[in-house]
Amino acid sequence: MTKNYLFEIGTEEMPAHVVAKSVKQLADRTGKFLTENGLGFKNIKTFSTPRRLTVLVEALAEKQADIDEVKKGPAKKIALDKDGNWSKAAQGFVRGQGMSTDDIYFEELKGTEYAYVHIQKPGKPASEILLGMADVVKAMNFPTKMRWGTSGDFEFVRPIHWLVSIFGSDVIPVKLLDITAGRKTEGHRFLGDSVVLANADDYEDALKNQFVIANAQERKNMIVSQMNDLVAEKNWQIKPDAGLLEEVTNLVEYPTVFSGSFDKKYLEIPDEVLITSMKDNQRYFEVYDQDGKLINHFISVRNGNKDYLENVVSGNEKVLVARLDDAVFFYDEDRKYPISHFVDRLKNVSFHDKIGSMADKLVRVKAIGEYLAQKWHLDEQTIKDFDRASSIYKFDLVTQMVGEFAELQGVMGMHYARLAGENEAVSVAIKEHYMPNTAEGELPQTTVGALLSVADKLDTIITFFGAGMIPSSSNDPYALRRYAYGIVRILLDQGWSLPFEETLPALISAIDGKTKAKLPKGDEDKEIALFIRDRIKQYMQKNDFKYDVIDAVLASSQQDPSQILASAKVLQQHHDDAAFKPVVESLIRINNILDKAKFSGQGQVDPELFEDQSEAELASGVAALAKVADFSELYQGFVKLQPVIDKYFETNMIMAKDPAVKTNRLMQLQEVRSLAERLGSLNKLVIK
Amino acid sequence: MVDKKLTIQDMLFKLEQFWSSKGCMIMPSYDVEKGAGTMSPYTFLRAVGPEPWAACYVEPSRRPADGRYGDNPNRLFQHHQFQVVIKPAPLNIQEYYLESLKVLGIDPLEHDIRFVEDNWENPSMGCAGVGWEVWLDGMEVSQFTYFQTVGELDVKPTMSECTYGVERLASYIQDVNSVFDLEWGDGVYYRDIFKQPEYEHSKYAFEASDQKQLLEFFDIYEKTAKRLLSQNLVHPAYDYILKCSHTFNLLDARGAVSVTERAGYLQRIRSMAHEVAVAFVEEREKRGFPLLKSAEEKKAGLKND
Q: How does strand B53-62 pair with strand A170-171?
């Protein structure tokens, strides 16, 4: 027989972001607890609001299965000693079964008598086991826990006020602190009353009568449908925001959607400021017209019904206006000063106390970017824009707006730069230098923005490494990995070549004397190169490259992310071709021969020493391939060259008796190997 | 909304009356500058140790960086908090709070009242708590906290703190858009009392303060606090720690403190806050935790009150 079991934890208002996770946790822990205790069930449904976490266990067994089994023990002659007393073996056997020696009987099996016990245990009733739900509650984890007045050392996400625990129609009096679970739950804090449940199944409907929509999905659907109705009626648009919707769903027990408006004059503030004020501070949805333009309305959700909604609307409008007035104040104040005023103040803003001020950083980033711009032959206008952008790009950090809304850094810089008459490239670069904001975030779209972002991140990595703040495998407080990964992604996106090992010394010398941090000396920059190389690996893993391809291209001497990735693409693309195996094998064979001969000779192949036509054929094939820059062409070249190489080996003894001929042949193979290495260390490839 | 609009002083009377009916003592505002009601010794010191405590008081809260020369309708150099602290926190403290709103004429059925997560932290005083900001139709009118640590000591039993933003709440009740239009009492308006000080304090905080002198003040106050601490003079030491904190806020308003230096100053204040909290508990213990004793006596019915 089965019945449904309802368990509700009633609390003070939980943080919106923990509600969904916590009810899932409660369901998982409950399921585990029941399974471990041998109580079967069909399914666990969850309900959750800011004030309750609830599970409804459907078709829960009323008791554990009865045990009725016969266990065979030691042979009689071992079970009894020579005086007829129970041996240690017999005692151990019954103890292991939770029985006593009195329960032993003997039975013959294939001519030998053995000790047996017959275990018959009725299963425990669920009503007894369910009292252990208190331990399920005690085991729960939360991002932040708290003690309250009567909780002693016990901690929970918020104070617990009541517990409901009903199995079918019977209360299971789970005890926690000084609370004993019963059948009484609480309705909406203001609109509802407490309600006594006769049965576990009454829960959802009984609460609905008390203005609590306990089903979180239903609550969310109510919000969405009310919002859609409102938007359709007013001919507005809203942008979906799953995070905000989820949060709002978990801020209310009974949702009523409403809209409010504000004076149009506030629309002159940048959209991002308005949206931040509405969304982050007030949990409002911003509203757009049919053309996608932000308009002077907002949508919010009340925890209650439609009564006195006009009070709620006017109150919310008033709050928003106060916030927007603040924003206007910052906006007006900030615009009173030229950009140079803020740039001046960057001297007093620390980048890091071991490295120097923000003003110092600007100088270094400019030096790095100028070096890179030359290296990449960027055009004159780009360089000019970069020079300007890099001289000011952190200025918004000391504006009042960013002081208030830190998340608007970069965005405000862009707006203020535009207002101050900076050109579009400079203005946008100020915003884009923070990109990508997350590992897989959007990349800078403009050349100047990309250059500024790379230069800014390179400076951060070099100076932090120089100051000894190198990330460990578990600890990367300054997110240097994300910066390095961002650099790799931008380089690939822009097609910029940056062989780190050979470029780092130049970058370091470009910023020498511009920071109080010690800069990496001697071989120390290798560590940075390796750090960035690991991010290239991360990038390839993320983009589903085969592990042997990744190993092969990273083991090569190739340093430039774009080149590494280009060869990886070719190897990945042809990895499963029929021609792949013979080509790679022939190239590996060359490798092995050279390794075995310990050959590292340099010099020119001398055609005069050729003894066979195959040698000349290989030489001309190699000469043609040497001019190929494209990895795909290079690979195809090797496919064509493979029969030539095979013929070469068939016809010629590499280790010729004549040392001059031998050296010449090894030299020829060396040429092939150098070409092949451009694709990667092919011996790392797994060929089938 | 409400039949007759409450003046600020009506509001404060009602709150005092309400909370005293719930067993809170009405304390005077504490006469040293501070950034928040929490920093009054009636909260900070009384939060630590085992003794029970229930008090409410109005506290002027000075935040130099928020000064706006009296130009901004809602931002102030000095605003006022009505602070209620009860230890151990009663289980029905939220209901008390909602009742207090009703006393002010705010019926929850006619508004949208929400408890939105806001875990309060004051790192410079080594304080952290768990709780909410209370939203009244979207406006944060109170801060509600269960203290977990104060002066880096665990708060056991837990103390509850409700902080009403007096100007915010009054703007709502009187339905004005600018705090300066609030009626304080008997036809006297907020602007008549505070407009000029707001201007002057902003002028001082942003323009006329002497950074060099403030840095010296900070050092002197810190030295004094430490000396007093070494002599177990808890309360005067605490006064000087409050002065350090206010001086730091003045320096901060001038933008005179870099991000790195900031951490250093906060650490200096925090370490003193910890020491004074420890010293307070020790001194109370020496005196046999008098309030614990009287509470026990009250409970046992040995004492008539």
A: unpaired
Torsion of CA B207, B208, B213, B218, to 10 degrees: -60
A514 and A640 both lie in a single domain: no
In the prediction, which pLDDT does B2 show?
44
- Reduce the DSSP state of residue A50 to 3 states and report it: coil
- Does residue A556 sit within a domain? no
CA distance A51 to A73: 55
How far apart are the C-alpha atoms of B50 and B48, rounded to whole Å?
7
Domain final residue pick, A279, A306, A334: A334
For chain A, the residue count is 688
A146 contact B CB<8A: yes
Helix (H), strand (E) at residue B189: strand B188-189
B68 to chain A nearest CA, in Å? 9
Domain identity same for A135 and A116: no
**Phi, psi at residue A213, to the nearest 5°?**
-95, 100
Kindly state whether A311 is in contact with chain B, defined as any CB-CB distance less than 8 angstroms: yes
Q: Which whole number is the average pLDDT over A267-271?
A: 94
Cβ within 8 Å, pair B139-A319: yes
Partner-chain contact A329 B158, CB within 8 Å: no
Q: Encode pLDDT of A529-566 as tens digits.
A: 999 999 999 999 999 999 999 999 998 888 899 999 99
Max Cα–Cα distance, chain B, nearest Å: 60
Is it the case that residue A352 has pLDDT exceeding 90? no
Do residue B177 and residue A321 have CB atoms under 8 angstroms apart? yes
| CATH number for region B209-291 | 1.20.58.180
Predicted-complex ipTM score: 0.92
Topology of the domain comprising B8-205: BirA Bifunctional Protein; domain 2 (3.30.930)
Q: Which of B130, B132, B150 to mutate to test the interface with A (most CBs of A within 10 A)?
A: B130
Q: pLDDT tens digit string along B275-300? A: 999 999 999 999 999 999 888 887 77
3-class SS shares of chain A: helix, strand, coil, % to 5: 55, 15, 30
pLDDT over 90 at A172, yes or no: yes
pLDDT confidence bin for B302, thresholds 50/70/90: low
pLDDT digits (tens, 9 = 90+) for A175-212: 999 999 999 999 999 999 999 999 999 999 999 999 99
Domain membership flag for residue A670 = yes
The pLDDT, as a whole number, for residue B303 is 47
